[in-house]
Each structure stands twice: as C-alpha cells, then as structure tokens.
Amino acid sequence: MKSAHLWLAALGLAAVSLYLLFLAPGGSKDSLGAGAVSTTATIAMKDTRPGEGGAAANYVTLIFEDSMRKNHRVEIRVMNGGLFNSLETGKETRILYQPANPEQVVLSADARGGVASPTLRFIAGSLLLAGLCTGYSAYRRTNQTAEAPAGADDEAPRPRGNRKGGPKVTITRR
C-alpha cells in the first residue's frame, strides 16, 4: 500500500473517531420532532423498579421550568444504565421538551457532559488507536530510503551455516 493511502486511512480513522466522541447524537431534537426546546432540569429522584420480564427499569424524576415560566414534574425511564448511574439527585442536567406538551421530555446529549456512551467511547478509542498506528506506519514508509546502495551487501555481516539451503556437507579427514 502506498504511503499516501496510509495517510488517507489514518486521517479517516481519526476523523471518524473524533466524530463519535464529540459530535455523535445522543438524545436529539429528532426524537421529539420539530420545535423541541432545550433547558436545564433538576433531578428530584432516581428510582429502580422491576420492569417487563423481571429486568430492572431505571426512572428519573425531573423538575424543570418551561418557556411560560411554569414548573413541571416529569418522570422518565432511562434505558442507558451508565447514564442513569452518572446522574445525581439534586444536580442539574440538560433536557429537551416539547413546548406544546411539556410532559414529553428526553435527556439531551448534553446530559452526559458532551461525552459519548461507554460503547461509543470504546469504539472511538479503538478507531483512534488504529488511526495512530496507521499514521505511524505511513510516517515510517514515507521516511524509508528508496533503495540500498549497490555495495551495501558486501559490507553486511554474513550469516553462518549453509546459506544456499542445500544439504549440509561435513568433510572429515582419514
């Protein structure tokens, strides 16, 4: 592979990695439709209850003020266990809500402080590591000498033993 292709691959891997870390959508306005508004909400309570099939379901009670300066108390289910564990009672978090129906609330991507979920962080880290390795390989290939000088083989140390690969012959005297 040419060094230019390696550089291109390294830059592509790094770009995808940075996109996943910082720009990948979490909760977005698309999940609520057009007109969703972002605001801060205080976490009033965290609760874990038995859900469908006996699995634990995580719920968060949020209190927020809408654009009409009315307070709303909403309970939402948090599907991401890592996100649920990172939320603390009494702290503020970013949410998205629908002004026409303030009971429709979703935690925004900013609720995690702009950091991706653990799975996305792992994938992004792996891609970044692969990009760095590819970039190092491209750097080494770019800085290689094109061809060894003509007399370089004469000065190199020769390996011991049978170099030609034929049968080894032992000479003995009588």
Question: Would you give an account of this structure?
Answer:
The structure is a single chain. The protein has 174 residues and is an alpha+beta fold. The chain folds into 2 domains: 54 residues; 89 residues, Nucleic acid-binding proteins (OB fold (Dihydrolipoamide Acetyltransferase, E2P)). Helix content is 32%, strand content 26%. A 5-stranded antiparallel sheet has the order 3-2-1-4-5. The longest helix is centred in the C-terminal third of the chain and has 25 residues. It is elongated, with a radius of gyration of 30 Å.
Give the CATH level 1 class of the largest domain: Mainly Beta
The separation of the N and C termini measures: 58 Å
Shape: elongated
User: Tell me about the biggest sheet?
Assistant: 5 strands, antiparallel
Could you say how many structural domains there are in total? 2
Q: How helical, in percent, are the residues? A: 25-40%
- Identify the quaternary structure here: single chain
Taking all Cα atoms into account, the compactness measure Rg is 30 Å
Work out the number of β strands: 5
Please state how the strands of the largest beta sheet are arranged side by side: 3-2-1-4-5
